[in-house]
Here is the input.
Amino acid sequence: MQITSFPNKERGHVQFDWLDTYHSFSFGQYHDPKKIHYGALRVLNDDKIDEGMGFGTHPHDNMEIITIPLFGDLHHRDSTGRDCIIKEHDVQIMSAGSGIQHSEVNPNKDKRVELFQIWIFPKERNITPRYDQKSFLPKDREDQLLTVVSPNDPNTLFINQDAWLSLGHFIKPFTSEYAFHQKGQGLYAMCIEGNCTIGGQLLGRRDAVGISGVDSVSIEAAAGADLLLIEIPYFIAGA
Here is the structure.
């Protein structure tokens, strides 16, 4: 078993007038040569965006981009003509593919929006850009791990990669064994809230751990915990 710790206190932190953001990996003004990516996982940004503010139109290509609002809503517009609201409890995925431009703005005038934005290297490059979003209610992940993104399950959002994202909210203590979907995968696990033990590693709020080189990983979550699991290919050519 190969274990890499990603403590909350070691995340990059950047504060702008309207954006308070923590970076698990090098991004923008934050650079750590030891934290460029974990396997196919390139970015995990923990953003708080002030009322009426956001990211203006900007380009992306050849990246799978997942947005998970934790609190509040986000207004998305892109160069394909899509104009929609990503609501709290929604999950959005955008395959930037051959190239897309989009903007993301907090449409609320009375509250911040808090979200995770996750970037994953794609399996196939230069595909036609695509977009999807789906609502996953909190009750759907109570005391269980709910897969929300995958390459092969019609009940989830499709991703152009051998990657699986799962969310769990635990009312009572939870124990399980997470089995990797295929060989050569790594698991990045973040304890969003509360306390969790992943592969024997104790995690507090926003702590994370990466585990590879095994077929399965033990999962324990205390009552009141929230958990994010990201299973991705561990070895990526050229990354």
Observations:
- DSSP finds no helices and 22 strands in the chain.
- Residues 2-233 form a domain with the Jelly Rolls fold (CATH 2.60.120.10).
- Residues 25 and 153 are 28 Å apart (CA to CA).
